[in-house]
Amino acid sequence: MKLSELSYGSSARVVSVDGEERITKRLMEMGVIPGIDVTVIRSAPFGGPLQIRLLGYKLAIRRNEAETIEIETPSDTQEND
Amino acid sequence: MDGKPTDRELMIALAGNPNAGKTTLFNTLTGLKQKVANYPGVTVERKVGRWAFGGTGVRLIDLPGLYSLDASSIDEEIALEVLTGKIEGSERPDAVVAVVDATNLERNLYLVTQLIELELPVVVALTMMDVFEKEEHTIDIKKLSDMLGVPVVAVQSATGRGIEELGEAVLSSAGSSVEVPEGLRIADGNKIFNRYKFVSNIVQETVRHNDRRAHQIADRIDSVLTHKFWGIVVLLGILLLIFHAIFSWAAIPTDLLDEGFGSLADAARSVMPEGMIADLVADGIIAGVGGVLVFLPQILLLFFFIAILEDSGYMARAAFLLDKLMGRIGLHGKAFLPMLSSFACAIPGIMATRTIEDRRDRLATIMVAPFMSCSARLPVYTLMIGAFFAGQTVLGFVSLGAVIMLAMYLLGIIAAVVVAFVLKRTILRSAPSPFVMEMPPYRMPAIRTVLQSMFERAWLFVKRAGTVILAISIVLWALTYFPRPAEVAEPTTEITQVSEGDAESAETAAESEHLQNSYAGMLGHAIEPAIQPLGFDWKIGVALIASFAAREVLVSTLSIIYNVGDDADEESPSLISAIREAKRPDGTLVWTPLTAVTVMVFFVLAMQCMSTVAVVRRETNSWAWTLFMVGYMTVLAYAAAFVTYQGGKLLGFG
Question: Which end of chain A has fewer CB atoms surrounding its CB within 10 Å, N or C?
Fold first, then answer.
């Protein structure tokens, strides 16, 4: 599942970040790394960026950037077990 | 390393994430003993101050706010060069004070790991401890320091807590050798991942978070301010308030300044013997520079609001709300601040584009920022509207002048949108750049930070008045003053009988005659064929040429051309009636309402500001882009003015 598909208010764990190098690097520097938990809070108007929370702070990222972030939700983990 | 240097002043760098409290700490440590300049070749600000403690003094250099040292933006590149001593005129710092926001520990410590990897002696200054403690989290500072391998000091700028301790820690670590902790020495694998793993382990061992969610209030504010509908409503309300303030609150100080410069010019005349020098000082220098400085109240007000929006954390929300809309045009959400600033003056606006990381995005923003109607266009609009549209209404109650004024602002915005759209799909096409932007916690703006940022930006404007505008005023004055005919030396001697009013008008008539024969007059005649299709005569041509130095010069040049004396302003009745009554040699009126609209359209679109040209050259580091901008804006202005005038005539106006 991708972070862009997560519904507002839900949390998930980052599995991988795999997009264009420059964007991936920026995301990871800001703390979007495999293993951390992120919550999608809301989106901007007109289909704009997403507001997410991670490591106790808020970050805005565009939808196409969120599409490069692979996540797993608690239900995914149970299925895998 | 050769141990502690004793023969020279210590140099300490201050590094930290944006919004970590770095500026506040820098101010606390240095007091007012600081100097702002630019790094050689680029326009990244370089702030240096003296930090005195325990009888010693150190040079404290404030780095730009950073998330990382990976050199992907200009700011990061410069910071890395300063830290590694590669930048011109400065050595590798003896130690680094890393400002770390305790409430956002993981991401802030990420930068610290990079500083340690550079083998620089680091002292961590933990800020925002008051917020951290209020939220009832706890932190084991001793253990944090042990695990990081560097001293950690909790500081609070407002109370002075930890400041002395910080000084001692810096003194004892300056110049010492650094051992990179085991966890950061792994060479293989993803470096970023590895650093975060190291940091996250430390945070888990040292911090106890109180689970009672303290973000609640901030979340509730955000749920309104970044709401899809209400967020936009609030943003529009804020913009409305700002523009209202600029136009109404600033009027009183602006008038006072205007009167002040008028009396200053009179005073200068009264103390100096009549002649060329007195003319130069009063008409050239004081009128020229004063004409620009009267915009200072408006500019200060706009920057005051912008500083509050930035310091409170709101600006990031505005960029978040508008990113998609700006993206459709081809601009980045972060272009909002530069565009807003450009309504006061394009110079600080263009300088504010530095936060846009992608070079092409940044260039596109710079190319269209001057379309925003800056305060220098206001006197032009005011004069034109005052002369031809005053007192008229549309629909019976809306002032026609206000409608036209609004239309001019909109025309500039539309031009910016269209040009940006075209540029981003042609010569400035680029892969989408990251929009990864922190939404900092809301904070009460610190008065000192707000005032400081306001004055720093306004100073750029004042400096331009003192340098470029001063030089241009003198040149312009000379162009209208020379060549000096000998016979007008003493015009009053022969007409002593006539009344004082007549003598004055004879004098101004002679001056007008002289203007026609001056170099400026010759230039006006030379370009007359080119501007005739716009409905302009040679006199307007002179004013047009002059206003390529700075737009507001139009008003003072027209006052000279129409003999209404130098103290006329855009609202003076004499200048307005002179414009209304000006005739061509064949007896027809020069100005019609259509001419006035054509002039305004030209002024919305043309690149008539030497200082902006100079700033664009510096910021883009390219003459090609600078000339491209001047060229396309002038062509666009001419074409739009042509269409306005000829189209208007066809429709039966004018």
Answer: C
